[in-house]
Amino acid sequence: MSVALVTGGGGGIGRATAVRLAEGGADVAVADVDEGLGNETARLVEAAGRRALFVRADVSDGAQVAACVDAVERRLGPITAFANNAGIEGVVAPIHLYPDEVFDRLFQVNAKGVFLGLKHVLARMIPRGTGAIVNTASTSAIRGRAGLAGYVATKHAVLGLTRVAALDVAGTGVRVNAVLPGPVETRMIRSLDEQAQRSGGIRRAGGTAYGQPGDVAGVIAFLLSDQAAHVNGAAWTVDDGATVA
């Protein structure tokens, strides 16, 4: 029986992933800073017939991440699947006006948070010789976007961490991949678009219609499954072809 941990599981891609994994037979731990949203996702996991656990955790805090991983393994069992998904969007502003404190906070959550998740989960998975991790990056990991210095820089960092981790785990029985969503209908993308409209000229980089959280969750669930047993270090775009050209 598999046990999955999903960070940023209170909504959007994280919630869709938690439910998809539960529907596929996993018990799911949901980590988030928002207790209300996190517990709501846990209830959806239980409604799918699986065990659920909510853990309040700030992924930028190493002690909280370590405690979260420990709690999950004590309550549900060894983590076999990890959706390293938590992230924030920051603000929309050109680099010369971008607030230092926002840039720093983005790196704390989006980059250090992914690093800490990898560190503490891999410390459990590698000795057991099994497990799969998917880091949520973005198509912003492979292109520039006007006004999004902090977000784009951190998502490039997530992709870099994925590639390093994949090399670090090679031959251990553990796999690490990344999913790169384009714009998805979530609170985050609505926030970015609203900011862009107010900024007077900065616009979201092109693409097609918004994707849905379930579109990304399906890819994450595949990469965490045994069906992707030979996939390690990959960056899977989920953007309706927007980054092909």
Structure characteristics:
single chain; 245 residues; 7-stranded parallel β-sheet
Low-confidence parts, pLDDT < 50 over ≥5 residues? Answer: 203-207
CATH architecture: 3-Layer(aba) Sandwich
Shape label: globular
Question: What's the count of strands?
Answer: 7
| Share in helix | 40-55%
In spatial order, strands of the major sheet run 3-2-1-4-5-6-7
| Rg measurement, Å | 17 Å
In terms of DSSP E residues, the strand content is 15-25%
| Total domain units | 1
Structural topology:
Blueprint: E1 3-7, H1 12-23, E2 27-32, H2 35-47, E3 52-56, H3 62-75, E4 81-84, H4 100-128, E5 131-136, H5 149-169, E6 174-181, H6 187-198, H7 213-224, E7 235-238
Parallel strand pairs: 1-2, 1-4, 2-3, 4-5, 5-6, 6-7
Helix pairs in contact: 1-2, 1-7, 3-4, 4-5
Q: What's this, in brief?
A:
By secondary structure, the chain is of the alpha/beta class.
